[in-house]
């Protein structure tokens, strides 16, 4: 499907309701007609993805999402498909009641769902149980139906959102549909792109239903999807001094690998010079493994001071530890007040000793680290990742990358971008160290702090997708270094980069 001009824009449920009302007024149509357009878009999606099937079962709730399902049943039957229709309730509300009446007027029968029942025979199940307004766990009767659909062995098409997925947050407070394809209507929904949505949405399509562009132009999105980018070509007369000097600070006893990964990714992302301040015992092995790194053994703040003076950007935290050595280096580095990327134990120390930042700073917590920074549980972070990342930016006065499926990047002014790339293979040790080095390298090359965070997250995730083309399981952080080098120079042959 061609990209819509506003397909990067992501909205909240409250915004979507306003947009729908504005669209109805602008188009001069009824809600029933808009529902019919949604049903037609769903039928088109069904035919594109499963052109050979002849028998479908549509599962309808009592609200407007169910109304979309009833009208899909009408259109599918007219198109020659055999349609079974299961309803959660004996009644429907508002426009959905008209849609149900249209289905029944054409001779369509409705099977009322019985928790002791079984699914009708079908080649495809269509989820039209709950729409964008659901912000709680589904009711017990629906839970049984959702479970049977998920375990039916048949493909699933979800209308607007997979039922049970919170449209605003991407969380699932209870049972939720696992869709193979989700066709979402009018505009992008932010909760379809982060958190649990990664396992529920499947292939995501946007059907705008003919809504005028003025409706989108008049609504500022709550968040936006990242686009694939690379740095511009370098001037022919460039020298290493033009591309900045990153200082990686970390590598407590037994954790040299974290410092090496951060340093090497900074090199592959284009930093002119990369130094590493680490335990003296690691100097030989790091120099031998990657001679381009300038590795220094430091035993405390006094030895770190001259390295800080020469550096233009600090990457603080990979393998740092939280003992006396790491804590002393952490304090000294923060007091230097230089552009900074803070990760891993650098964040854990920050949770113990909070401060706000005045120099350009990027924090890169995973959900557990974010929970410690906010003094809440990891589950609370995942219940609303958008609220969590915005609170982190406010509390620490920094750009924050909340890592995970659908990583979020936010600034203290409310701007928020969502990363659409990445894969489960990246849930392994060392991946965060790479991201720290990449963002630090981009800052060193002159990117603004927001650009460095967004571009760094995008390059990291896209490199992960390219590296995973041979399989996600067993993916190593170091596997990303070669594709990172290519992608940073605008060389891309990965289908998911688009």
From TrEMBL:
Binding positions for K(+) per the UniProt entry: 65, 127, 163
Binding site for AMP: 403-407, 432
Reaction catalysed by this enzyme: (6R)-NADHX = (6S)-NADHX; (6S)-NADPHX + ADP = AMP + phosphate + NADPH + H(+); (6R)-NADPHX = (6S)-NADPHX; (6S)-NADHX + ADP = AMP + phosphate + NADH + H(+)
SUPFAM superfamilies with a match to the protein in the record: Ribokinase-like (SSF53613), YjeF N-terminal domain-like (SSF64153)
Binding residues annotated for (6S)-NADPHX, in chain numbering: 64-68, 131-137, 160, 258, 319, 366, 433
Alphabetically ordered keywords of this record: ATP-binding, Isomerase, Lyase, Metal-binding, Multifunctional enzyme, NAD, NADP, Nucleotide-binding, Potassium
Gene3D superfamilies, per the entry: 3.40.1190.20, YjeF N-terminal domain (3.40.50.10260)
EC number: 4.2.1.136, 5.1.99.6
Domain named YjeF N-terminal: residues: 16-217
Cofactor note: Binds 1 potassium ion per subunit.
Pfam hit, one: Carb_kinase
Span of domain YjeF C-terminal: 223-491
Cofactor: K(+); Mg(2+)
Family: Belongs to the NnrD/CARKD family.
Record function comment: Bifunctional enzyme that catalyzes the epimerization of the S- and R-forms of NAD(P)HX and the dehydration of the S-form of NAD(P)HX at the expense of ADP, which is converted to AMP. This allows the repair of both epimers of NAD(P)HX, a damaged form of NAD(P)H that is a result of enzymatic or heat-dependent hydration. Catalyzes the epimerization of the S- and R-forms of NAD(P)HX, a damaged form of NAD(P)H that is a result of enzymatic or heat-dependent hydration. This is a prerequisite for the S-specific NAD(P)H-hydrate dehydratase to allow the repair of both epimers of NAD(P)HX.
PANTHER family: ATP-DEPENDENT (S)-NAD(P)H-HYDRATE DEHYDRATASE, ATP-DEPENDENT (S)-NAD(P)H-HYDRATE DEHYDRATASE FAMILY MEMBER
Oligomeric form and interacting partners: Homotetramer.
Protein name in the entry: Bifunctional NAD(P)H-hydrate repair enzyme
Gene name for this UniProt entry: nnr
């Amino acid at each position: 499907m061609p990209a819509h001009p506003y397909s990067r824009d992501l909205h909240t449920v409250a915004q979507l309701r306003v947009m729908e009302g504005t669209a109805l007024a602008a188009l001069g149509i009824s809600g029933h007609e808009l529902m019919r357009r949604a049903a037609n878009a769903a039928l088109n999606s069904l035919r594109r993805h499963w052109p050979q099937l002849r028998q479908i079962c549509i599962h309808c709730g009592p609200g407007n999402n169910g109304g979309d399902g009833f009208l899909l049943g009408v259109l599918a039957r007219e198109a020659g498909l055999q349609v079974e229709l299961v309803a959660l309730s004996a009644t429907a509300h508002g426009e959905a009641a008209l849609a149900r009446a249209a289905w029944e007027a054409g001779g369509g029968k409705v099977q009322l769902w019985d928790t002791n029942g079984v699914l009708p025979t079908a080649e495809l199940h269509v989820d039209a149980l709950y729409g964008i307004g659901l912000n709680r766990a589904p009711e017990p009767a629906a839970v049984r139906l959702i479970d049977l659909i998920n375990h039916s062995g048949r493909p699933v098409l979800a209308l607007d959102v997979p039922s049970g997925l919170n449209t605003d947050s991407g969380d699932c407070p209870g049972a939720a549909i696992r869709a193979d394809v989700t066709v979402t209507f009018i505009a992008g929904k932010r909760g379809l792109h982060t958190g649990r949505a990664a396992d529920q949405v499947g292939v995501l399509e946007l059907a705008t239903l003919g809504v005028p562009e003025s409706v989108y132009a008049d609504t500022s999105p709550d968040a936006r999807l990242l686009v694939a980018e690379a740095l511009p070509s370098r001037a022919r007369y460039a020298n290493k001094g033009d591309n900045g000097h990153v200082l990686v600070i970390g590598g407590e006893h037994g954790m040299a690998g974290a410092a090496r990964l951060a340093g090497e990714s900074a090199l592959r992302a284009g930093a002119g010079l990369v130094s590493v301040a680490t335990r003296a015992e690691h100097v030989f092995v790091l120099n031998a493994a990657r001679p381009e790194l300038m590795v220094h053994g430091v035993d405390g703040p006094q030895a770190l001071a001259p390295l800080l003076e020469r550096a233009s950007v600090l990457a603080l935290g990979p393998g740092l530890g939280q003992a006396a050595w790491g804590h002393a280096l952490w304090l000294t580095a923060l007091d230097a007040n230089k552009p900074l990327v803070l990760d891993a134990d650098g964040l854990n120390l920050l949770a113990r000793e909070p401060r706000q930042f005045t120099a350009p700073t990027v924090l890169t917590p995973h959900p557990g680290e974010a929970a410690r920074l906010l003094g809440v549980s990891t589950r609370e972070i995942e219940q609303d990742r958008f609220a969590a990342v915005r609170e982190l930016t406010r509390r620490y006065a920094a750009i924050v990358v909340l890592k995970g499926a659908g990583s979020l990047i936010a600034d203290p002014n409310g701007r928020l971008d969502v990363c659409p790339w990445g894969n489960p293979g990246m849930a392994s040790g060392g991946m965060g160290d790479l991201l720290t080095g990449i963002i630090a390298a981009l800052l060193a090359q002159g990117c603004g702090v927001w650009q460095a965070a967004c571009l760094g997250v995008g390059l990291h995730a896209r490199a992960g997708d390219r590296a995973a083309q041979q399989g996600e399981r067993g993916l190593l952080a170091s596997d990303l270094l070669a594709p990172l080098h290519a992608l940073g120079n605008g060389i891309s042959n990965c289908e998911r980069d688009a």
